[in-house]
Each structure stands twice: as C-alpha cells, then as structure tokens.
C-alpha cells in the first residue's frame, strides 16, 4: 500500500502495514466513534440519521452453550473458547428491533496490536447482508424483539489466539462501536473435529485420547524393564491457555504463523527449552538442582507453564527429556493439536547423522571414557503431533516427530521437527524437518573399537540392532503401553529394512560399510533378575557357542554407574572370567555384585552399565556386548478415605518409609491431580533410616468422572519415586424435599 492509500485508512490502523505483529497480548483498538466525510447539504440531517439508527447495548457470547458445541467446556475460565470452521452463536441486544433493510451492522474481530485485513488479524463480517467478502462467515440465526442471534464461523485456516470483538453500527455519518470489553474476548483453537482443519482426526476415540485426556503415562526405565510415571498435562486448567499464548509472545512468533500447525509446533519445539531463546525450561543433567526443582520432582506441566508466564517469562529450572515432552504435549493439546509422548528405548545421540555410535575400549577391555564421545540414551522421550503436512506429499501426513529436548540446532535454534514418521520409516530423509537426526536416533550402529597400548584403535564388533530397540506410547483408556516400533522401522535384517537403508544413503546418509569382521561364532548375553536399590545381586553371562567346535572364552566384565543419557560415571566392578563352552551349547557364568560396591557411586535414576569384552581363545576373535540394568526404587503409597464426590471433602495420605541405612536429606514430596487439587509440595529436612513419613491432605474434587491423583518423592539421593491412584468421582448430590438428585 502506498502512502496516499495509507492516509485514506483510519488513523488507528496506520501502523498496521509497517509492523510484523508478534504479540497476542498487545492491543490496538478502533475508536468508539469513527466519522465519515460530512454529509452533503441535500442529504438527511444528522438528527434524522441518528433517529433512524440503532445502538448495540450488549453482546452475549453464550459461553456455556458454545463451549459445549465446540468441545471446550472442560477449559476453566469465563471467556468463550471456540474451534476453527465451526459456527458459534452470539446475541446482540439492541435498543430497537433490527431491520436488515434499514440497518447496517458489522462485527469486527481483532487480534494483536496491528490489525490488518490482509494478514488475518482484522476480520469484518456483515450482519444480515448477502455480502460475504470475509474469510469468516456470518448469518442471522434468529431475531426476537430487540435481540438478534448471529452465527459466526471462523475460517478453517485462521490464526489461533485470543480475539477481541466489536459490534459496529454503520451510517452515512460514520461508525459507532461498542466499548472495549475483555469479557467478550474469545479464543480460537485448532479443530481436530473438522475435516477442513489440518489437524483433523477422524476417530472420536483418538480425539478423546490425544486432545482431551488431561493425564498421561510417560514410560522410562530400560527396554526390558519398562517403568512408568503419570503426568498431569492439565491443558484445561485455569490460566494454561493464556500461558501457552504467552510462550509464543515471548518467543516473538509472528501472528501470521499461528494459523499453521506445522509452523506452530516447529516454533514450540524451540520455545519449550531455554537454550538460545529464553524458552520455558532449562535443561540440566548435572545432578545439582539446588537452584531450582529437580527434573525428577515434577508431576505435571501446569505448574511449569504458569510459573513461566507469571514470573515474566523467566526460564523454569530444571528439565530433562520427559519434562520437555510432557510440557510440549500440554502446549499442543491446549491449542487443539493432537499430541502424544513417545519413548524411544536405546536412543542414539548422533550429532553428525552418520549412523555410527562409537564405543572405545582400552587395552584391558574397559570403556575408555575420555575417548568415547557418542552416547546411547537408555530412553529418550519426544512428541508426536497429528496433522496434514501441507508442505509435503500426502503420504507423509499423519503423525510427526517433534523433539524439544535441546540436543542439536536446526536453522539456528535448538529444536527438532516436525518430521514425518512415515518418511522416517521409508528412509525418505530429504523432506523437512530434521529427518536425518531422527533417523539416526533409531538406526545408528554401535561400533566397538579396541585400543592397544600405543593408543591405536581398530573396530572389533558392530552391533546393528542395539539402537531403537522399542518405541512405545500410551494405549487408549489404559496405563499400559502400545508398541509403535513398526511405525518407525521395518524388521531388523529384513529385505525392506535394507531397502530403506539404501534409500537413506541416496538421501545423503553416509554408507554403513565397515571392514569385514571375522565371525566369532560365539554370543554373550547378560541376564539378571529385578533388583532393588541396596540389594546384592548376581549377574549371569550366558555364553552361547553357535559353532560346531568347543571353544574357550576369556572375558572382562566392567561395571559402572550410568546416567539415563548413556554418560558413564565411576567404575565399581572389574572382573575377569574364563569359560569352556561345548559345541552348540550355552554356558552360564555368574558374577556377584555387592551393594557396598555400587551404592556409593549411584547417580540419578539408579542405572548400572555392564560392558563385556571377550576373546575366543582358539581363534583370537574378539566379541563384546553391553547391558544397562535399572534398579528398582522403594515404594510410595497413596491411600484415600471417604467417597469421592464433587464438592465433598476427601482425605488422601501419602506414605513413605526410608529403607536405607543412610538418611535422605532435603526431601520434596509433590501431590497433583487435574480436577482434584492444585499442585501441593511438602518439604522434609530429612528422613532417617527406617523412619516413615505420612503426608495427609484434604481435597475437594471439582469435576466428576475418572480422575488420577499422582505423588512424587524426590531428593538428591533418591530420584523418580512415584505412584498414582485412579478412582471415579461421583456427581454432586442435590437434595430437594427428601429426594436425592444428581447434577454435574
């Protein structure tokens, strides 16, 4: 627009063309009175025009009725919340009966500080006129006396956020607007119920699980000992929707981008972590969380998002992968994008994308920590979001990987995705975003190198199946996991898997060709039973001779503590073993592990890593393997007394006994549950050996239905102690003249 045409615009809109609006919270509103050029002398008098005109006295947003239609009735708050491309109705109360032939009434919808019709931030719809030149549609639904019910349908691609509404009466003198009223502000969200929206899901059970479910289960541990923790997504809690919009405002996300689901989740992937952009959460794996909350202590996202928004967008301390994933899941579900948390067991952190994770052993067969730079995480949590990828061929729509744990930069920011799950499975890595990185997390080879006394190394073993062991997410209406590995990769060593690798190589992944290694003919597997922290236990090496000749195996077993990220700590065990194994037989070799050896070295989440390096004596062929063992944590008990009913007191107690011979210091106990209780935190300076604590609270359920109460105990010596209690909350009793009735 040139300056001459700009001058013809109302003064309050002059700045709209020059600014890229990046805030939903800032406003620029039109004046209550906007005059047109003076009426000609032969026209009607001002008094006659005013006498024929009408005034809008109020706007009823019909919050309750509309929220029920738009599947937003679970959001806490007094303002209306609607979804794209679905009609909502409002009632205009006028000072006289509305006449479509005599009166011209418009509705204006504004978002941000620089309203612009060309950018979707300033929408005008006419009431009762055939003219429909707006992307938003309107119609007169009904008229009764001096009231008019109007139906409004936001465009299927409109911006997501909080809109302001003005009713405008237009006459030849100008425009008369209603006053700015925050009570009539309303939110527009993505719409997975509507087939025109890019986040549409066709099954109601999927929408209930991936959009409406407020509580989820996040899976951790190790692939052969999967553990769980409940997570309060709490996307409908008071203030959470505003907090999500604040996150985008703080990240300077242009309003123009906020109608595109792909763009929103890509921006959110960066904004959930603070690295480089002061996003929501500070990632830390240091073990020292004294200046904030330990990642293992959180029970849900609302506490995090509300803290970030209320304290001036200062990053919240601290998070690790499941906290990032849980918080991002709240963000996308709150805005109406279907999302879920996925756990990848044995997830490679391959910053070069070359599909190689290098493990270096020293001349004694122990892991050389100074030379082993790559790592395989016991598990890594990311998100999947469901959407149509408008920028990709149709077959790559559906579930998309989004990872906000800060690992590597993408286009200058620490983020990852969205990248198509279907494209990852097919090895089609040329499409945006970050497909090579995700592919490497699932398909890297673990390459063992052995160094000699001079420091020179050679490859002794390649394990092509260790990484990407299993991918899981929560089942519908269950805390059990659903195995979705086949969504990401074909069966190991299958023809289709080889074809995918060839496709990946054609798309720029380096070829996975190594020196031809001699076949050992012997395989070692490490086994053990479930072990509690503080227990002595027995480790078994099953040495399987697959050849037709007897052999002798000399093996070195190294034990060390390890973070869930694969970063190793102190060694606590080094033992040499020798075994003779008959042809086609398996020989068990046991190793005793003492608690006094490993307990002093434990790091958070209590993982032990055992690495075996062996040689077949007859052929001098090397072989190696490794296994992570997750130690079982002590029990946290939740008990309830009373009958759960909306509006009635309910007593809940959380009990814990310290089973160790050392005190637990600076203990934090959290209790949380959407629809039940806002997060409560109890601090204990210490819990002595053998001592018990009992934390009892009274809660008043706010809504009926299936609810989950979750508890978490955390201190520096003991992380990730959680439990949850599921129960049904009954509707509130309504007593009238001796008869009991029920209501929501």
TrEMBL record:
Species of provenance: Danio rerio (Zebrafish)
Pfam families, A to Z: Transglut_C, Transglut_core, Transglut_N
PANTHER family: COAGULATION FACTOR XIII A CHAIN, PROTEIN-GLUTAMINE GAMMA-GLUTAMYLTRANSFERASE
Record family assignment: Belongs to the transglutaminase superfamily. Transglutaminase family.
Superkingdom, natural source: Eukaryota
Keywords, ordered alphabetically: Calcium, Metal-binding
InterPro entries xref list: Ig-like_fold (IPR013783), Ig_E-set (IPR014756), Papain-like_cys_pep_sf (IPR038765), Transglutaminase (IPR050779), Transglutaminase-like (IPR002931), Transglutaminase-like_sf (IPR036985), Transglutaminase_animal (IPR023608), Transglutaminase_C (IPR008958)
The keyword Flavoprotein belongs to this UniProt entry's keyword annotation: no
UniProt keyword annotation of Calcium present: yes
Cofactor stoichiometry and binding remark: Binds 1 Ca(2+) ion per subunit.
A molecular-function term among this protein's GO annotations: protein-glutamine gamma-glutamyltransferase activity
Regions annotated as coiled coil: none
Cofactor(s) of this protein: Ca(2+)
Name this polypeptide is given: Coagulation factor XIII A chain
GO biological process, one term: nervous system development
């Amino acid at each position: 627009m040139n300056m001459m045409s700009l001058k013809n615009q109302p003064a309050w809109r002059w700045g709209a063309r020059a600014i890229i609006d990046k805030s939903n919270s800032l406003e620029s509103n039109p004046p209550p009175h906007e005059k047109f050029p003076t009426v000609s002398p032969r026209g009607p008098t001002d008094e006659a025009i005013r006498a024929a005109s009408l005034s809008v006295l109020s706007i009823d947003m019909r919050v309750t009725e509309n929220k029920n239609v738009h599947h937003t009735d679970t959001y806490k708050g007094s303002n209306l919340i609607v979804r794209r491309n679905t009609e909502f109705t409002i009632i205009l109360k006028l000072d006289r009966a509305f006449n479509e032939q005599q009166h011209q009434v418009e509705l204006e919808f504004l978002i941000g500080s620089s309203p612009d019709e060309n950018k979707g931030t300033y929408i005008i719809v006419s009431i009762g006129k055939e003219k429909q030149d707006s992307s938003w549609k309107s119609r007169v639904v009904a008229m009764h006396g001096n009231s008019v019910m109007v139906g409004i349908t936001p465009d299927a691609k409109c911006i997501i956020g909080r809109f302001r509404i003005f009713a405008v009466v237009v006459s030849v003198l100008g425009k008369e607007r209603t006053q700015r009223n925050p009570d009539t502000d309303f939110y527009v969200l993505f719409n997975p119920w509507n087939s025109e929206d890019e986040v549409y899901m066709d099954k109601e059970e999927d929408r209930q699980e991936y959009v409406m479910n407020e509580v989820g289960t996040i899976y951790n541990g190790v692939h052969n000992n999967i553990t769980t923790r409940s997570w309060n997504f709490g996307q409908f809690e008071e203030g959470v929707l505003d907090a999500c919009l604040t996150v985008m405002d703080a990240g300077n996300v242009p309003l123009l981008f906020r109608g595109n689901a792909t763009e929103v989740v890509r921006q959110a992937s960066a904004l959930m972590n603070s690295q480089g952009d002061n996003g929501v959460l500070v990632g830390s794996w240091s073990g020292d969380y004294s200046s904030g909350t330990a990642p293992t202590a959180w029970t849900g996202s609302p506490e995090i998002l509300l803290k970030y928004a209320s304290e001036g967008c200062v990053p919240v301390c601290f998070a690790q992968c499941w906290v990032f994933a849980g918080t991002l899941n709240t963000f996308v579900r709150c805005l109406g994008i279907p999302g879920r948390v996925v756990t990848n067991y044995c997830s490679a952190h391959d910053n070069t994308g070359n599909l190689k994770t290098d493990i270096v052993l020293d001349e004694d067969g122990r892991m050389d920590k100074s030379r082993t730079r790559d790592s395989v995480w016991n598990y890594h949590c990311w998100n999947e979001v469901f959407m149509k990828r408008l920028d990709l061929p149709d077959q790559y729509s559906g579930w998309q990987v989004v990872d906000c744990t800060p690992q590597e930069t993408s286009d200058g920011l620490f983020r990852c995705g969205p990248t198509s799950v279907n494209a990852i499975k097919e090895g089609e890595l040329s499409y945006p975003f970050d497909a090579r990185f995700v592919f490497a997390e699932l398909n890297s080879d673990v390459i063992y190198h052995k160094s000699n006394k001079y420091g020179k190394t050679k490859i002794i073993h390649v394990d092509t199946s260790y990484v990407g062991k299993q991918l899981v997410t929560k089942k519908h209406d269950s805390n059990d996991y659903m195995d979705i590995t086949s969504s990401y990769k074909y069966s190991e060593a299958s023809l289709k898997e080889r074809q995918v690798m060839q496709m990946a190589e054609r798309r720029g992944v380096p070829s996975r060709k190594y020196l031809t290694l001699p076949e050992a003919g012997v395989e070692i597997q490490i086994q053990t039973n479930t072990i509690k922290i503080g227990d002595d236990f027995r480790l078994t090496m099953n040495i399987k001779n697959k050849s037709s000749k007897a052999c002798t195996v000399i093996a070195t077993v190294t034990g060390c503590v390890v973070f869930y990220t694969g970063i190793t700590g102190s060694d606590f065990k080094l033992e040499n073993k020798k075994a003779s194994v008959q042809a086609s037989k398996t020989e068990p070799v046991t190793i005793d592990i003492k608690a006094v050896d490993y307990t002093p070295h434990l790091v958070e989440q209590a993982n032990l890593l055992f690495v075996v390096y062996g040689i077949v004596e007859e052929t001098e062929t090397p072989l190696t393997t490794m296994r992570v063992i997750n130690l079982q944590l002590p029990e946290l008990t939740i008990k309830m007394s009373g009958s759960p009913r909306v509006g009635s007191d309910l007593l809940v107690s959380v009990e814990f006994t310290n089973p160790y011979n050392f005190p637990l210091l600076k203990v934090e106990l959290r209790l949380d549950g959407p629809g039940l209780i806002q997060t409560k935190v109890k601090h204990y300076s210490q819990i002595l050996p053998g001592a018990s604590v009992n934390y009892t609270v009274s809660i008043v359920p706010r809504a009926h239905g299936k609810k989950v109460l979750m508890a978490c105990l955390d201190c520096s010596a003991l992380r990730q102690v959680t439990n949850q209690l599921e129960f049904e909350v009954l509707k509130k009793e309504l007593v009238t003249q001796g008869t009991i009735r029920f209501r929501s």
